[in-house]
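Fold it.
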Amino acid sequence: MTDKTEKHELGIMTYLAPVVADNLDRHLGLTKEWFPHQFVPWSEGSNFDGPLGGDPWEPGQSRISEHARASLIVALLGEDNLPSYFFTILSAHGNNGAWAEWVRQWCAEEARHSVVLRDYLHTTRAVDPVALERARMAHMANGYVNAHEGDGVLRTIMMLSMSELQARVVHRSTGMISNDPICDRIMARLAADENLHMIFYRNLVEAALEIDPEDAMVALCDVITVFGGPAQQIPDFTALSQQFKKAGVYTSRMHIDSVINPYVRHLRLLDRTDLGPAGRQAQDRIGRYTNRIELACRRFESMRQDPQLQSN
């Protein structure tokens, strides 16, 4: 990173620091304390095989759907890697002041998610605990590589705002297809947290658009058109994601309707007129990207509705 870029990044972070402080106060006033242990059906639990001599896990012991299981594993493994996210984000934002206070608060809240998910999955015997632990070890040993590392604080904030929005959508969908009201309640609780986290980061993005609309639009274009959340670095993510994609947990239609379009509309990205040549070019790319995804979704949906194509 050049001296000029470092000064620019420092300027952005300095400008956004009071915005971070204000939004941290706002967040603390809205977030609700909750306790993971109160959401877990402990009375259903029993010992596993091993030192305590319990029964080994078998697939038939799970009451949740296979697709929900895959989605829950992805959610849990993503939360498990919090130490890597914490280090990466704190390194980018600094270890003092409002930035650091927010990152610590955010990670503490996200850690609740891994606690309740693992306790629920183990207690209800919803997943193979050995395979789950091996996946956790592999994922955490690999660490986390920010896809926008070195690209600046703006892209990191934007990626996080979209990742939290995506997580909210996936959590609610997972709960609804789980066939278990307890799981549905847990995922609704997690989705509520993710929504507040998304709003926090999105508010920072709005502030960045006001201070430097040109650079912010270019950064947003980069993130939106090649978006990939931290979960994509989970081992076997492609195979796992295909399972809950088929079940409708998260589809291309949901990506455009519930994540991309609401995000673009809220920030009024396609309506801004305060842009220079690079900003207008990025704005145009975002518009073409959303149109392309929408067209692809319509074509896929038409193919699914065509009896002749379905029979082939």
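The two ends are 54 Å apart (CA to CA).
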